[in-house]
Predict the structure.
Amino acid sequence: MWKRLSVLWLAVRGDAKRLWYALGHPDAPVWLKAGTAAIVLYLLSPIDLVPEMIPVLGVVDDLVIVPMALRWLLSRLPADIRDHAEARASGAKPQSPWKPARR
């Protein structure tokens, strides 16, 4: 299971970071939290759409379904949350709504 998760992490780490920062946004929609929980439960669940006993397809289904689900969730985000998550994932510091006072 750990090998499967490490391979999957390499495939989705950029989208996972964006999703993480989108979840941390104060206006994150409830459906985003529910969808993320569903993806995590799918990954950790012993029940799989294609069993792991089938040599190649057992792992490939996770490498296809999870990235597609992440992309689908991210594509439905409101623009302000998507921009916030993109900026945070790229390493930019979050902008404060307060402007510094001029001296």
